[in-house]
Each structure stands twice: as C-alpha cells, then as structure tokens.
Amino acid sequence: MSFPLPTPFSASRIHSRSSIGMIYGLTSLQILHRCEKMSHERADEVTRVVLDEFSKLPKKRKPPIRGNGVPEWVPLSGIVAKGTDPTSPFQCLSLATGMKCLPANKMSQANGVILHDWHAEILALRAFNHFVLEECRAVALGKRPSEYIRPRSDKELEEAEAAEVQGLGWNRQPYAWRDDVSLYMYCSESPCGDASMELIMAAQEDASPWDFWDPPVSDSATTTPPSLSSEDSMTRTTTTEIPNLPGRAYFSQLGVVRRKPARGDAPRTLSKSCSDKIALKQCTSLLSSLTSLLVSPKNVYLRNVILPESRFSSEGCARAFSATPGIGRMSPLLTSDSWPGGYGFHPFTVETTETEFDYSKRTVTARAEAAGISTTGDNIASSPLAVTWSRNGLEESTINGVLQGRKQLDRRGGSKLCRLRMWGLALEVSALVGAGGALAVQKLLDSGTYAEVKNGDLLTPRRLVKSRAREEALRGWVQNVGDDTFGSAVAKPKSKIPRIPTS
User: Fold this and answer.
1) Which of 108, 268, 394, 428 could form an S-S bond across to 390 if both were Cys, CB 3.0 to 4.6 Å?
2) CA–CA separation, 390 vs 93, rounded Å?
3) Which residues lie across from 175 on neighbouring strands?
4) For 263, what's the count of Cα atoms within 13 Å in the CB-facing half-sphere?
5) Is the dihedral of CA 165, 166, 171, 174 positive or negative?
6) SS3 category, 4
7) Element (H or E) spanning 115, and its range?
8) pLDDT tens digits for 466-482?
9) Which residues pair with 358 in a beta bridge?
10) Using H for helix, E for strand and C for coil, what is the string for 222-266?
11) What is the pLDDT of residue 437?
C-alpha cells in the first residue's frame, strides 16, 4: 500500500505501465495488481533486513523486562540499500532505537558531546552518515572498494567546477553515492508530528479536533529574514524565548511544523518532529552538513519509507510528505526553479508492511496480555535506552544523549554520533583525501568552531535548499540553537592530521 506520488511523477508511472501492457498484453488492472504486489514484497523485505540485524544484537542492546516485571518497548528505525540488479540483496546499513530528545535549556551545556535528538528515526540517519564517512575513510586508505561510495572522476569534478563558475553552487565533493544503489527507510512507528496526527486523534476519548491555538510566548520570538551567509541567521530566534511550536496537541492544526517531545508535560525543546525532519530530507538528501562536504548529495535520497500498516495514516503521510497538489504540504516545491549544488526535490512514497517489531508497544502489550499481565497504568514502560548500529562497525548504547554509564557533562561520554566526534571523523577523512577540491573541504573543516564550519561558503547551496524548503513548505521552522561554539581542537582525532598549506 502506498499513497500516490505528485502528479508529474504519477503520470510518468502510468505511462510506463501502459507501455508494459502494450508489450506483454497485460490489462491496466493486471499491471496495477503486479505493482502493488511488488510494493508489498519490497516493503516486507526492507522490514525483514532491519529486524534481522536488530535480532543479532546482544541482549544488553534490547529493551528488558524490569525487576518489577514491567516490560519495556521502544521504536526502531533503519536505513536500507539495494542495487538495481534484480539479484542484489537488500542490506541494512544502519539502525537505531530511541524516543527522547534534549531539552532546550540544556543545549548550552552540550558542547558537541550530548546528542540533541535520539528518536529512532533521527539516530538511524546519524548512524547512516557515520556509515558513509567510514566508507569514505576505507576507500581513502585503500583498504577496500565500497559497494556504496565511489571516488568522483576528473571529468565530474571539472563539470562541477564549471557549474560553480556559472553560479550553480559548490559541488566538488571528492566522493559520490553510487548511481545504481537505492535507499529505503523503515520505521516501526509512524514518525512523530504531522504524519501521525490522525493516529493520535483516533486514540483520544474525544477524537474531534481542538479548535484553538496557543499564542506565541513573545511577540519578539520571530525568525529573522533568511540570509545565505550563515546557517545561524537563517532561522535563529531574535530572543531567548522558546516559540510555542505545537507537539501532540492542537489537532485542528494540520500540515504544520511541530516540536518534540509530543507530551505536553515534558521539558520544552526546539527539536522538530521526525515528520518534519524526514520531509526536509526530500530536499537536502540523507547527508548531514559535514558528510555533504565529502559526498555529493546527488542520489542520496530515499525511494520509499516503510511503516507498519497498524501505524499508517494515508491522510497524514500524504499531507506530511507528499507534493500532491491540494494535499501535500511539499507541493510548493514542485514549481521551484533549478536547485544548486547537486540538490533537488525527490519525493518518496510510503509503503506498508504487516510485520510488527518484537519490541513495539503493540507487540509488547499483546505479549503482556497473553501472559495475563494488566497493561493499564504503568505496567508497560518506554525504554530509556537508545541503541545505534551500522554495517561497518558502529554499535553503542546511549541514555540521555550520552554513552550508557557516563554523565551528561563528561566529555568521555560522547557518542560516536555526537557533533564533536562526527566532526573529528569528517576532518580525518578530508585529510586522507588530500589534494584537489578536498583541500578546500579540509580548510573549512579545520575552522575554529563548529558554527564556522556550518556557516562556511561551501555549504551555501545546502543553506539555500533548506531556506527554500522552510519558506515554501515547512513554515514555522525555528532552529535549535546553543551548541555550536565548541572548537576544532577538541574535535580532531588522535591520529595526526597533515598540516594544511596556507597558500
């Protein structure tokens, strides 16, 4: 099952189906049934490889049954790749569990060490970026070829340089994602935010929409006009007040950017919902700012997102993610002119599976009820543990944004996915690549502070794309600020990085 792609893409697909029918003598209905069967098979296979990898993790990485007999549940998400060759298998590249985020009042204490958002979907994306950087590192060291990453040819880089001269933005990353590898995302829960609002409403005793809106905290808590000169000035609030971006409530407000966490009694944050962040990935690619300095964003876009049928709202997903005119909030981007720096607008489709995750709330609840355990009140608990894994060696557990067993303010508690350590890995890879366009990348990554890296000229195309998406489709997006002043001296890996020429 899937909701339709935007009209231009759907028309192309219909034309393709008609052509197949003419060749093989199939009716339109037969072709539709075959496409739906392929869709279900693909969704099931993506789900299977993520669940299989999670099942291989040691017991300590999985939600336990507490000493008082209360079982824990947790969301799971994963990124999956598949080559275009029909015999190519689906392979899980990264996965994560988790469901919390860092309160806004603790952002200034993070110092690049504490994760901001450890919802499963966001951690899976960060783990994917770690995977990509490690693939680049392996290729640069000559350890092995990669099934996913390739060095860009001299011709590609010359064409990218010519495009830059013509004003189309910097796009001279030393690596590219392989053209013949597609990407998929599995989520055991509907992403929080707009995509899940119908599910939230249906779970209420009174499912009718609420017809009021919380006023802004302060009239001055608005965003400054966007400026491509810095990530900071594009969306930073003019005061320290936290705007009232709605979480789970205000059901009458659909298609809007929402904040985490969903619970109204939890500490407030400026972390945007998973629906909003995943929707934005249709524009910026799956790559983070740091990774996009080393790998071209072209081709690093999702083809499908897979959800359990029990957690799928066709209306919510179409509204949150699609560009279908009159339905999807991303539709204004269909009329956008050319996109710079290898970026583009690449809508994905949402498909469903009947398979459930063993530690979803539904599965854990069903097991408890089958065992005669009451599932009311506090007899089922969400897990505080967030787990990350990738295909090339990452495996760790975090609690409250830092490594399990460490205190939040202990620098040794930084996850491999925290800003500080990801910066260090990107800097190490850039030093290994060395000459050519990578020299400019290394110079930027060796900037004094994290903020200087994010605001660098090489990332101007990415800032432009984010600005366009936020202005035209994801209105109300306010940047999560307060953790970008830490320096490169603490980010650099222990291995010696070559000095950068001054000229």
Assistant:
1) 394
2) 5
3) 151, 295
4) 7
5) negative
6) coil
7) none
8) 999 999 999 889 888 88
9) none
10) CECCCCCCCHHHHHCECCCCCCCCCCCCCCCCCCCCCECCCCCCC
11) 63
